[in-house]
Specification:
mainly alpha
Length: about 70
């Protein structure tokens, strides 16, 4: 999961959107043994990052992804 999030952060930094990687990251996230509250926060961060990137707000997307990486790390 960490490598996928790192890849998404790098892509956000250069202004690239990879929706299929976001979907794969969500699938991996769903397989992790997280308490419900942690999963909710992590999935919200991932979805927020996708929404920000889709609207061209790549800095905000990278921020959400860094917060996700920190949470899962």
């Amino acid at each position: 999961m960490e490598r996928t999030v790192d890849l998404l952060i790098q892509k956000a930094k250069v202004g690239e959107l990879w929706p299929d990687v976001y979907e794969r990251a969500l699938a991996v996230l769903e397989s992790l043994p997280l308490p419900t509250s942690e999963f909710d926060l992590a999935s919200r961060r991932l979805r927020n990052a996708l929404a920000y990137a889709a609207s061209g707000e790549f800095g905000a997307a990278a921020f959400e992804l860094r917060m996700l990486r920190s949470q899962l790390g």
